[in-house]
Design goal:
seven-stranded mixed beta sheet, Aminopeptidase, D-amino Acid Aminotransferase, Chain A, domain 1, 14 helices, elongated, 3 domains, Rossmann fold
Length: 515
């Protein structure tokens, strides 16, 4: 029970002799059900311990949003009386051996002033101190938290969670959603929800500040674009709280595709030709994209002038960037630069969710010194400090490349460098907390990873557009030759179900495969 994180378990200690007088637990499940259980030592029966524990389990279980259930034998009169006296309930089923299956209702019969008390006169020296089985006797164990991760509904947060958990850190995960790949993972120490950081910024920051005050983490680690919101309010958080990101202005400058392209060009990085007007375009297709965006959202490849004009009209209220189309395939450079430390790795896309580029579902680590050199030019030019990913179009046969954009955060394909030996989350944590990272880093080329759910979403999208071929079918259903999966881990099989649940809810709500 101690090793199973599904149990919220407590013990009662008799402080006169250090003996366990009883214990109780809520066995919880990710779909929102919980099952009560308790045991009172025979020497301590008749003192109200069972009723008291039922009240405790109700308070905790209902407080975290569980529906509570219990099975009890009518032949065990003490236990049966304790159950029906401490809770409202309904009988769901009569079981063999005179047992009943109950649902405990969320409206306890007793309020606080009528809560049960222990009996036994002066000889009763039991305390109501209930302790977590993992903790020390005699007091409630303090919540443990080394790191808070935000924006944890997806595989990126899950990769970071796994990395830091395996190094022994206690990681709490947070998101706007309650149920997702990280919150149901056995690797997380706890989870909480917050308001949408992009539509309710003040409330989002307020919740984060409350949780930081409650949990006392050493590091607050944003995983996506909410980093800009958090860094905008950096001075509202404790000074000793480490948030390993650049200031909000620099983050926004690099995230802006038009601005970062100009900075890259001035730093000597090869960039695609930028068209200032439609009249400058001499060949199609071109690339048309919003200056802010991610995951190929707002990226289009008009094949002629008429299609371009239609797209421009549709997005007339957004700032757009027109660039020449570059051949080759998508390559991503994962970068960590921190003072004198600078390390990179490169992966290329095997499968992308949208044809022409964007979010990758299968990747492979390659050796590409040219792309690493180009990425370093840009980072050095702005004295970048932290983690980022740079996307390039690259043709290895001609050794020609072109800069596409910078993601000033952990990249969507972070599972690939981590599987290859470049443990980015842990390295960022060590650099942020200790200022250096000295162990050797040997990035293994040819390391391949696969996002399982992403592959099936890609296939569904192709089928709906009637744009699918046999090769793509084979790629989606292939599980051979991969070193790791973005969203599946043998020691944590429930996590992928949390991911599927999240995507299903978004599909039903928004009618889209991409949440």
């Amino acid at each position: 029970m101690k090793k199973n994180r599904a149990f919220l378990a407590y013990v009662i200690i008799d402080t006169t002799n250090n003996q366990i007088a009883g214990y109780c637990f809520n066995r919880s499940f990710f779909h929102g059900k919980g099952f009560r259980g308790r045991m009172v030592d025979i020497e301590y029966r008749g003192r109200g311990l069972g009723t008291m524990m039922n009240h405790l389990l109700n308070t905790i279980g209902f407080g975290i949003g569980l529906r509570l259930f219990e099975s009890v034998s009518k032949n065990n009169k003490a236990s049966y009386r304790s159950t029906i006296s401490s809770s409202n309930y309904k009988i769901l089923k009569e079981l063999p051996e005179n047992e009943v299956y109950l649902e405990i209702l969320n409206n306890m019969k007793h309020n606080d002033k009528h809560a049960p008390t222990l009996t036994g006169g002066e000889n009763n020296n039991l305390t109501a101190a209930l302790t977590l089985l993992q903790g020390k006797e005699g007091r409630i164990m303090k919540k443990q938290c080394d790191v808070i991760l935000t924006y944890c509904w997806n595989r990126v947060g899950y990769t970071i969670l796994k990395s830091l958990h395996r190094k022994g850190l206690k990681v709490w995960v947070a998101d706007t959603s309650k149920w997702n790949i990280c919150s149901v993972s056995r690797f997380c120490a706890g989870s909480f929800t917050y308001p949408d950081p992009f539509t309710n910024e003040a409330a989002f920051i307020s919740v984060l500040k409350e949780k930081v005050a409650e949990l006392h983490p050493k590091v607050l680690m944003p995983t996506h674009d909410e980093s800009v919101v958090i860094m905008r309010h950096r001075n509202e958080f404790p000074k000793d709280l480490i948030i390993p990101y650049e200031n909000a202005d620099k983050l926004l400058t690099l995230a802006n595709k038009a601005k970062s392209t100009l900075i890259a060009r001035d730093a000597g990085v090869t960039v695609p030709k930028v068209y200032d007007s439609i009249d400058d375009i001499d060949v199609f297709p071109i690339v048309l994209k919003t200056v802010m965006g991610n995951s190929a959202k707002g990226v289009f490849f008009p094949k002629d002038k008429n299609e371009l004009l239609r797209l421009m009209q549709k997005h007339k209220h957004e700032k757009m960037l027109m660039q020449e189309w570059i051949g080759g395939t998508d390559y991503s450079v994962d970068c960590v630069r921190w003072d004198a430390f600078c390390q990179m790795s490169v992966y290329h896309a095997i499968v992308t969710k949208t044809k022409g580029g964007g979010t990758t579902t299968q990747r492979e680590i390659v050796s590409a010194p040219l792309l690493e050199a180009e990425a370093k030019k840009l980072m050095d030019a702005i004295d970048f400090h932290g983690v980022c990913g740079m996307d390039f179009r690259y043709d290895p046969t001609s050794n020609k490349s072109a800069y596409i954009e910078t993601n000033v955060r952990f990249t969507g394909g972070i599972a690939t460098p981590v599987a290859a030996g470049f443990d980015i989350p842990w390295i960022v944590y060590k650099l942020a907390t200790e200022g250096e990272y000295t162990p050797p880093i040997n990035v293994r080329t040819n390391t391949r990873t696969k996002w399982i759910l992403g592959d099936f979403i890609t296939l569904a999208g192709r089928i709906l557009k009637l744009d699918c071929n046999m090769k793509e079918l084979q790629q989606v259903f292939s599980f051979h030759g991969f070193d790791a999966y973005d969203d599946f881990c043998k020691e944590d099989k429930m996590a992928i179900l949390g991911e599927c649940y999240y995507y299903l809810v978004k599909l039903i709500k928004n009618g889209k495969l991409n949440p």
